[in-house]
Structures are given as C-alpha cells and as structure tokens.
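Box S1 | Example of a co-folding query
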Amino acid sequence: MTNRRVFILQSVIGTSVLASGVVMAAAPMVDPKDAAAAGLGYVEDTAKADAKKYPKHTKEQMCTNCSLFQGKATDAAGGCPLFAGKQVAGKGWCSAYAKKA
Ligand code: SF4
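Box S1 (continued) | Returned holo structure for iron/sulfur cluster
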C-alpha cells in the first residue's frame, strides 16, 4: 500500500471515529450557576442544597430518585426535562424534586 493510500485510509478512519465520538458524546452538564438552574436551587450534590431556603429538602432526595430523572437509578448523570439538552448529576437536586413512585 502506498503511503498516500495509508494516509487517506487513516484520514477516513480518523474522521469517522471523530464523527461518531461527537454523535455519542454525552450532553453537557447543567451549570448550577446558570440562571435557570440557580432559580431552581439546583446543586450537583444534594448535600449542598440550601437548607434555609428549602426546608423540606432531605439529603435522601436526589435526581436519581426523582420522577423527572431520565437516566437509571445507578447513573452518575442523566437528562431532566427542566434542562433540555443537558444532564443533571445523579446526586444532584433542585427544588422541583418529585419523589419517584
Ligand atoms: S427535577 Fe428532579 S431530576 Fe430534574 S434537576 Fe430537579 S431533582 Fe434533578
């Protein structure tokens, strides 16, 4: 195989790996400082929720056991319809929390 052929093959393979990487890449995480997230009191670690502002919060409440969480109970992160196109932390929490039935 000529060097040129090898180069072209490597380029094609490299490009398809890159392209599939982009397609399979996970959605970005929600930034707790984003206006929408901050407005809901979202935190990446439920233990850090503002207890004064949200007195009904308990540390057992977290995204993975919220009815709105779109991942599995064991997932480190997953989707939430409140933050379309992004992921919330499995151990995260926000004031829209609704216990999974
Ligand atoms: S609504 Fe539920 S899953 Fe979504 S960020 Fe709030 S606690 Fe997490």
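Residues 42, 63, 66, 68-69, 80, 82, 88, 92-94, 96-97 surround iron/sulfur cluster (CB under 6 Å). The first strand starts at residue 77 and ends at 79.
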